[in-house]
Amino acid sequence: PIQYALSHPERWGNDELPKLDFTRISRFDFEKPDYDKFPCLRLAIEAGKKGGTYPAALCAADEVAVEMFLEGRIKFNDVAMLIDDILAKHSNIARPTIADILKADAGAREAIKEAVRQERLHC
């Protein structure tokens, strides 16, 4: 689905991965998510349930935090902590306009950068 979204309206080929053959798969097993191991999953589910501008703030904070991690500016474990902090301070708008969503996105991006500057988090 992500590849389809990125390539829309065209479809990119992917010869490196085999096609999913449901006739050869007898079952799928799902387990309850481990939110201690995957705290960002918990944050995403909570943001989705709260709705409004929370998902936009979460995505923006996540993008900046991951970028900072990849640049070596913060530790991996800081990613979820920073996102959680940003969402805890976020003022949700339950029925946002596009302008509200863009403002939430920009605000979360700036807030996470400021949090890193103030905390002086780095590897």
Structural class: mainly alpha
Sum up the overall morphology in one term. Answer: globular
Largest sheet, described in full? none
Radius of gyration over all CA atoms, rounded: 18 Å
Quote the average pLDDT.
91
Q: What is the ordering of alpha helices and beta strands?
A: HHHHH
What is the end-to-end distance? 34 Å
Uncertain segments are none
Please give the share of residues in helix: 55-70%
Number of helical elements = 5
Strand content: under 5%
Q: Count the strands? A: 0
Describe the structure.
- It is a single chain.
- The chain has 123 residues and is mainly α.
- 58% of the residues lie in helices and 0% in strands.
- It contains five helices and no strands.
- The chain has helices at 2-7, 39-50, 54-70, 76-89, 98-119.
- α3 (54-70) packs parallel to α5 (98-119).
- It is globular.
